[in-house]
Amino acid sequence: MILLFLKFYLLLSFLFCFFLIFEPRNLPLNFILKNSLSVIYLGIGATAFTLTLQLVGQKYVSPTKSALIYNLEPVFATLFAFLLLSEKLNFQQIIGASLILISLFISIPSSFQNKS
Questions:
Q1: What does the alpha-carbon distance between residue 45 and residue 77 come to, in Å, rounded to a whole number?
Q2: How far is CA 97 from CA 13, 52, 65, 88, 101, in A?
Q3: For residue 111, which of 32, 62, 64, 80 is within the disulfide window of CB 3.0 to 4.6 Å?
Q4: What pLDDT, in 10s, does the model give residues 47-57?
Q5: Rounded to two decimals, what is the model's pTM?
Q6: Of 96, 62, 64, the residue nearest 77 (C-alpha)
Q7: Would you say the C-alpha torsion 60, 65, 67, 69 has a positive or negative sign?
């Protein structure tokens, strides 16, 4: 757990230095200060907390199931965006989700055959 927080801190520090080098005039401090609660929520709640839960959950699931769940993440994100936010899906997104689902259905039987 400590290693995960260290990873986030080092990545944040590295990216902030990178930003200062390449975009020094575009630092939106005014915007960040006005919306600090939203920025904190996105940083801690939506990123660090969810990734921590994912890593903790992966300890209790087999690597095969973990990979299958992880690969379904973009499909679920698209599905929830369609259902909850009334997003429109274009043809490429439908084909992409279909290809992900087909590849998962192909890999599921082969992963269980290898165990037995």
A1: 17
A2: 35, 26, 18, 14, 6
A3: 64
A4: 778 888 888 88
A5: 0.52
A6: 96
A7: negative
